[in-house]
Design a protein that fits this description.
The protein is mainly beta. Strands 10, 12, 13, 14, 15, 16, 17, 19 and 20 form a nine-stranded mixed beta sheet that branches. The N terminus is likely disordered.
């Protein structure tokens, strides 16, 4: 591994103003040699400053930095009370190499204080410090994600499967995963479910892969670019000498989790509008592949006796938007509003079954048929509209 130094300016690292006269300001980072899969703690200590605000750390090259918290220490020396405030930050490395944090010059109340530089070395996972040679290792070499779909071009209201594949090697992850910054409008994306993990070879490296799947549906035409913020928890080991309850110095290896952002390439979806050409007048927005059936409760009927018409739509697509197809009858029928009596969905898939019932009562003995019912939908696989007609239905 070829060592390298990065200089981080103080102005880019810290921001505060208007503090009282400081007695002492120090910067420390521990440990100063760590593996790529471990984390370090940066501590800013202020002695003799009453209630200082939390310093804001800007981007530190080579690290993801998270504020952990503050602690205040007080001690009495020769009858005089001394206090200090410590601000702690968690530093998760994103690559290997040698980093020089500082030096910094801080001006408080007209007095200048110099924070001495701290050198931190990050070695490869399961590796040792190296004085020279070899190749540097980045966290993105060990942990990255890919987004994909079974379709990159869809029609509005067409369902598609969206997958996230999380690749990792040489690191341990807990089960937690968070995904943010998905589009807030234009796309309807279900919660992700985790599938069975696999192993995959990428180049000459073997990765463990966790797979996640969600269903998406575009609510309007256009081009959508998904660039989500994916975060996972690394399980890292903190090696610190500690004193046990019996007064002996012992070496404990503790495990902790560190939240890190995972590199994931943006994914683009093109959504085409449902065409106007060939659109049936009674098309109500169904997109997918469906079947349609109609049954009558009776065909031997007298005037004033009810007939229950049962219409069933089944298939794959945006079933939730489908309503009872309208029946075109004249005033010789009394027609009641349709009722939804069944709606089932298929596990892990769009679509299912939707069943309606509608009651008709013939007013006249000369009625011999019930007119046909038609259901139209747009088939995105074929790129055209389909109409299924059932009936007419003879009456006796």
């Amino acid at each position: 591994m070829r060592g390298w130094i990065k200089q981080v300016s103080f102005a880019a690292l810290l921001g505060w103003a208007g503090w009282a006269q400081a007695q002492q300001v120090t910067l420390d980072i521990q440990p100063r040699v760590l593996r790529l899969t471990e984390a370090a703690t940066l501590t800013l200590s202020f002695a003799g400053i009453n209630n200082p605000p939390v310093p804001e750390l800007a981007n530190v090259p080579g690290f993801q930095v998270q504020y952990v918290g503050r602690e205040q220490q007080m001690s009495v020396v020769n009858g005089r009370t001394e206090s200090s405030v410590n601000f702690r930050y968690r530093m998760v490395p994103t690559g290997t190499g040698k980093f020089r944090i500082g030096p910094f010059t801080l001006t408080i109340g007209g007095a200048s204080y110099t924070l001495q530089p701290v050198e931190v070395e990050v070695v490869p996972a399961n590796g040792q410090p190296q004085s020279g040679g070899g190749n540097s290792q980045q966290l993105t070499d060990l942990l990255f994600a890919r987004m994909r779909s079974d379709q990159n071009r869809v029609y509005a209201y067409q369902y598609f499967n969206l997958f996230i594949d999380l690749y990792y090697r040489g690191v341990n992850l807990d089960r937690s995963i968070s995904l943010a910054d998905l589009p807030g409008s234009g796309l309807d994306i279900s919660p992700f479910e985790e599938l069975r993990p696999t192993r995959e070879a990428v180049g000459s490296d073997l990765y463990e892969v966790r797979h996640f799947r969600a269903q998406g549906k575009a609510l309007s035409a256009g081009v959508f670019t998904l660039n989500p913020n994916l975060r996972v928890n690394l399980i890292v080991e903190n090696s610190q000498p500690q004193r046990d309850p019996f007064g002996f110095d012992m070496f404990f290896r503790q495990r902790d989790t560190r939240a890190v952002s995972v590199s994931i390439e943006p994914w683009t979806l093109e959504v085409k509008p449902i065409p106007d050409d060939g659109r049936p007048s009674h098309f109500s927005g169904a997109v997918g592949q469906f079947d349609f059936s109609v049954q009558l409760s009776r065909t031997d009927v007298k005037a004033g006796e009810p007939i229950t018409l049962t219409a069933r739509v089944s298939g794959q697509g945006n079933l939730d938007t489908i309503a009872m197809p309208g029946i075109q009858v004249d005033d010789r029928f009394r027609v009641y509003d349709p009722k939804l009596i069944e709606q089932t969905s298929r596990a892990g898939q769009s679509g299912g079954v939707k069943t309606y019932e509608q009651v008709l009562i013939p007013r006249s003995e000369d009625i011999t048929t019930i007119p046909p019912l038609s259901f139209s939908f747009f088939d995105p696989n074929q790129g055209r509209f389909q109409t299924i007609t059932r009936g007419p239905f003879p009456l006796t």
